[in-house]
Amino acid sequence: MIGLIVLGLLWGELSADTHSLRYFVTGMTPIPGFPEFVIVGYVDGVQFVMYNSNWKGLIARKQWMVDSEGPKAWNRKLLLAQEQEDIVRRNIPRFMTRTNQTGGIHMYQMMTGCDLKDDGTVSGFTLRGWDGQDLISFDKDHMVWVTPVHWAESIKNRKDQDVVSNHLWKHFLEVECIEWLRKCLEYGQRELRVVTPIVSVTHLDYFNWLVCHVTGFYPQAIEVTLWRDGVLIDEPMSTGILPNHDKTYQIRKWIEFDPEDQAEYSCQVEHSGLEEKLVLIYDPKSHTQFPVPIGIVFGVLWIIPLSVVAVIMYKKKGRLKYDYNPTNILSFSEGPLMSLLETRFPLLRLTF
């Protein structure tokens, strides 16, 4: 069964030759000052549109998105967002009834999207969740809905019988979504320009770590691997993909390293900004040590274990079968309210 992805500071990796379009929908029971309904759209990890129940408007983060659609099409999308809000508002009390819940904070989430590879291969998906758990997803190849929970069997059966709607979903995921993604890429080519990564391999003496740092790249999709004597090193530690201030991305991967080891270590990077795979071989002779203030050392000592714990937690939570990893979906994803919600919903930051 498809698992829900946990978001946060950890960003996963898409294939280096893949472009993506994602829509995330979140609806929840009322909390004062907090929107009950939110839609966020991303192209290649860049947010381009947002709607929530407080604004009641479709907000384009970039004007080229509106220009590419035209006023009529943009207004139609606004109406669809408002209709989706009405549907979600009606569904929340129904799901509470089905799960014997009469109060408290509850959340409905949906993720819909598609991918386009450079070789023309396409894929698409839509799935929903309730209170941070898998609820139901659409298998477009077999034209059926799949659920892991007993109480949603009646929902599945009803959806399976709606043949017309299922064909529309299939057409949207395989055709319309891809067409919209192509249009976004065409009109946003200046905003979504490809930026070549900068790669370095460093030995951190204090920790005896060999670190491959890749930064300044766009789009987000990238493959970074570490090698020893031509053999792939399985499961190195990683920060995951993180955003830079200039809308590019960075990632670090590292391993425990014996400086007396005479083997050849290398970092290999694949990215759409590179004409071919980049291979950077670690040269101990070129290694330069930089003095680090003790305060920074202790700061790193705290940050790195937390990052490792986060990576472990991320892996234990599981991934989508499709391995989709979009960016943080909510602009209000930090602060005391988010802490409160995360206590109630450990999978609040899942991608929907």
TrEMBL record:
Keyword Metal-binding appears in the UniProt entry: no
Keywords of the record: Glycoprotein, Membrane, Signal, Transmembrane, Transmembrane helix
Any one Gene Ontology cellular component term annotated for this protein: extracellular space
BP term (GO), one: immune response
SUPFAM superfamilies cross-referenced by the UniProt entry: Immunoglobulin, MHC antigen-recognition domain
Keyword Isomerase: no
Ig-like domain ranges (all copies): 210-279
Taxonomy, superkingdom: Eukaryota
Transmembrane segments: 290-314
InterPro entries noted in UniProt: Ig-like_dom (IPR007110), Ig-like_dom_sf (IPR036179), Ig-like_fold (IPR013783), Ig/MHC_CS (IPR003006), Ig_C1-set (IPR003597), MHC_class-I_related (IPR050208), MHC_I-like_Ag-recog (IPR011161), MHC_I-like_Ag-recog_sf (IPR037055)
Signal peptide: 1-16
Family: Belongs to the MHC class I family.
PANTHER family the UniProt entry points to: MHC CLASS I-RELATED (PTHR16675), SHKT DOMAIN-CONTAINING PROTEIN (PTHR16675:SF235)
Protein's recorded name: Ig-like domain-containing protein
